[in-house]
Amino acid sequence: MADVQEAFLHGQLRERRQRLETALAGSRDNEGLQQLLHEVDSALERMKAGGFGICETCHDTIEKDRLLADPLIRYCLDHLTPGQRRAMEEDLQLASQLQRGLLPKRHTVFAGWEAYYYYRPLALVSGDYCDVVTHQNEFEDVYFALGDVSGKGVAACTLMSQLHAIFRTLIASGMTLQTMVERASRVFCQSTISSLFATLVLVRAG
Hints:
Helix content: 40-55%
Strand content: 15-25%
Number of helices: 6
CATH class of the largest domain: Alpha Beta
Number of domains: 2
Number of strands: 5
Shape: elongated
Order of helices and strands: HHHHEEEEHHE
CATH superfamily of the largest domain: PPM-type phosphatase domain
CATH topology of the largest domain: Phosphatase 2c, domain 1
């Protein structure tokens, strides 16, 4: 695994361990939290020993997007148990529902503009980003956004939802288009690892 990704995941694991320690401080008999803490410590040990990201059954590399979504996993897709496969499928279905819930209305009419879109991700969840946002001000602006986050699966879906939140917040602030894109780029880069990126086009019509 690339050094920058491992460093990012190491930080995520250390942060998760600290939160678990805090939660356990007043209740050491919480079996569920103790098990999670053990899994985090195990992942940190694998990272230290150089075995992090390696399937414990076939010793091949675990899918990168799955590790980014959950650094505690220890098996590649080919060696999940039936129960683990079902749990993953349920998570994907839920992520798909959440992602579709972020999409704009199929048909938007505002300030003389009429917009339609067709959204068809390659898989259940993806990094495809599409939005139509109306902003009621003295100019009655309409914003069209189209983009793609690198990667696939739940990790890309998570970053897509992050982009959605960033631009929705910035559009509501009423700043210029250039400032909006510059600030979104800065926030996005600061909150993810350098090997992941997004390509995006943002248009304002008013």
